[in-house]
């Protein structure tokens, strides 16, 4: 096993660019897409295309501007659309008397956050209008606010440890999502070494040697695991100690990363069983992998994906379980018992994919 | 030492190898000749235990190796047709890797690597990456990797395909030395007749998955002992003359070659006067006439109806 492992290391030692590039990609992607909370106030242009629109615009802008992160500014429609087109604003808002439309050209996480806020304001107003009937909603609102100053029931929330419940940190989720996503590529390309050895004839040489097949597989797969795990660990350590993210219990995060890397090695092995040449793997693997985070919903706020079919497909892959467990640890101070289930899922995926993958590789002539 | 008993391999409906019977005595150098697709590589894969036969057996010192391949693997070195090396590593690193997987003891591995590098003439290039080598140099490292554990039997599957004459001569010389000086038993497959003639004591000729002839060079040439081979060169090409020659009594075969026409006739039948007459009648001159000593190539042509590179 050792010579097989070391041979892979010797090859990569001369060409470490792929791993270094992927580490850099994880960091850059997280910094670009994940820095949602620290971007300051985001300006959202607001316009109305209806007549008598000034009143409508003023009403909604006043209600919408109660959020710390977003600033809604009335703007000419043409200018607002221009800003979105040129990328100066991620989203613009067209308001109507009782409805709205978002104008956007991207699927950035910030767009989802703005949409959530706008939906909440409009829903609240619709509730008030329904209750107010003929009365002016402004009066009713004032009445409700006065009433809420001394409510009959007060609910206090606190975390399991007795502290405040922390705000959901989308940046943290994206850090985990991007890092694990990029590591999936590294792991896959390393596992592909088995197919490369088979095609080159090195595998046959190994079969004729006293090294057992189990050791041949373990040498390759252990190396792929180590590279993937080290890559994930390096990114997390950089974010934790240099960039200043608080990842919580680092030992637990790295344990989850290890189980994730292990199960991804198995998934890559399964795909290796399907293809015949390394070139085919390079074609198939990068076509499948980018779909996984989208289906797993790891780029979106929790609960965004509601389709049971998509949720099932997402659960087949280890990514959703890995990110879920890491978020639980980093944001909600989950303990070892809380992360056992996602780890068990990753192990199950790993065992099944590895079993099927090796079987398929061995059956191929 | 090593023998195959009615060894056969069928892929789905296609019979790749059919009831092959080979034997190799210790210290012998045996050639396996055949055109592409004759079944040489499949036979070698079964002998080296990489592929299970559909039927038949492979025996090493009388014991079957089909169920227990570890016995043959201990004494076998295989040089595959493809370059089975890590191209991103140097020649030395490749040999160190293969030495380790063959469990060559740490204290002797270094010396052994230098010995095999010396043998294949790459000692001074050992630190260079394999991917920077020429095709011939890669093939030499490919051979060196199979020699590290001092195998008693060495199987070489077309080790000189697509390389320069200098590297080919070096490889042939290495194989000859291994056989004559180190007593290694050699099974050498090729579709280059000259290589086999030069290296091997005995030859098996394969075609369409079967052994069509076997024996020493003299024994194989005796197949053509009842025939004369005549090579003639004409002043111009003529199909009607070709047909006239075919009709001459005792002429068994007429083939057009790059040098002219090759005629195979019954031994001792004097067809020279008939040839001259036929040419005169067509107004064609015979520029060159030669009685040829038959070669293994002629034997192969006689047995299979095609040349080795067909």
Overall body shape of chain B: elongated
The rough form of chain A would be described as: elongated
- Stretches of chain A where pLDDT is under 50 for at least 5 consecutive residues are none
**How many distinct domains of chain A?**
2
Strand content of chain A: 5-15%
Q: Which pair of protein chains has the largest interface, and what are the residue counts?
A: A-B, 21 and 27 residues
The CATH class designation of the largest domain in chain B is Alpha Beta
How many helix segments of chain A?
Answer: 16
CATH architecture of the largest domain in chain B: 3-Layer(aba) Sandwich
Order of helices and strands of chain B: EEEEHEEHEHHHEHEHEEHEHEEHEH
Named CATH topology of the largest domain in chain B: Rossmann fold
N-to-C order of helices and strands of chain A: HHEHEHEEHHHHHHHHHHHH
Helix content of chain A: 55-70%
The mean pLDDT of chain A is 86
Q: Which strand order does the major sheet of chain B show?
A: 7-8-9-4-10-11
Describe the structure.
- The complex is a heterodimer of chains A (365) and B (310).
- With 365 residues, chain A is mostly helical.
- Chain A has 2 domains: 2-33 and 169-363, no CATH class; 41-149, Periplasmic binding protein-like II (D-Maltodextrin-Binding Protein, domain 2, 3-Layer(aba) Sandwich), CATH 3.40.190.10.
- Chain A is built from 16 helices and 4 strands.
- Chain A has helices spanning 2-14, 17-33, 53-64, 77-85, 109-132, 137-149, 170-191, 193-200, 202-208, 213-243, 250-274, 278-288, 291-296, 308-316, 318-332, 340-363; strands at residues 42-47, 70-74, 91-95, 100-104.
- Chain A has a 4-stranded mixed beta sheet, sandwiched between helices.
- In chain A, β3 and β4 form a beta hairpin.
- In chain A, α1 packs across α10 (213-243) and α2 (17-33) runs antiparallel to α7 (170-191).
- Chain B is α/β, with parallel strands linked by helices and 310 residues long.
- In chain B, the strands form 3 sheets. Chain B has a 6-stranded mixed beta sheet, sandwiched between helices.
- In chain B, 40% of the residues are buried.
- At the A-B interface, α1 and α9 of A face α2 and α3 of B.
